[in-house]
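Human:
I keep going back and forth on a fold encoding question. Comparing notes only helps if you start from a blank page. Show me how you would write down a chain together with its backbone fold. Write it directly below this note and I will take it from there.

Assistant:
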Amino acid sequence: MSNNLIQQYVTHLNSIIQWFENALDGPPSQVPERAAYGIIVRAKTAVEKISGKQSYYFQQIEEIISSVSHISYRAELVIGVVEALKGDLLDGSITSLTDLIHGKIFSDYLHMAEYLLQEGYKDAAAVIAGSTLEEQLRQLCLKNNIDIEVSSSDGSNRPKKAQQMNQDLGKQVYSLFDQQQITAWLKLRNSAAHGQYPEYNENQVALFINWLHDFMSRCPA
């Protein structure tokens, strides 16, 4: 990737970050809903153009949009991904489009969570770690022939919630201690996804990520 192209990308990302900062509206700092929608759309379009739909950057924006209900907080988390992409472009971590598309910067979502936490984005890190945990639970269910869907009253099937998968797995795959720990981590993830970020701190997110590393090694899917 040429230096000129990198600079063009950085300039474009900077304009989105600046729009977000200009839109912050008084204490407590919050972006008005109208501006938040515009910021999210522009950020998603830019990240897709720069990194492609298969990159971890774009996938994480998709995850934030689908899991975070509060629009202003959603915009804040999306900007965190934009800043991560900008930082990687500037420090040379990304040397080609192949690096972006195949996600070599982050070998998995958990590494992205660690990166964002180190950069001061504890809330985005908590959402990503929570998504990683939920996917691990889903894969463990599939591995152990546990249903990942439940039947609704109208006869249709819907995805089983993370806590229900946790309860099912606790009966045959891992210990009661792990089950209780996962319940606590899912609560932290839900707090992050719904913008209730004063309910936890950076140390707790770091503990979550470290525990998840250990859990995934003990209970591989």
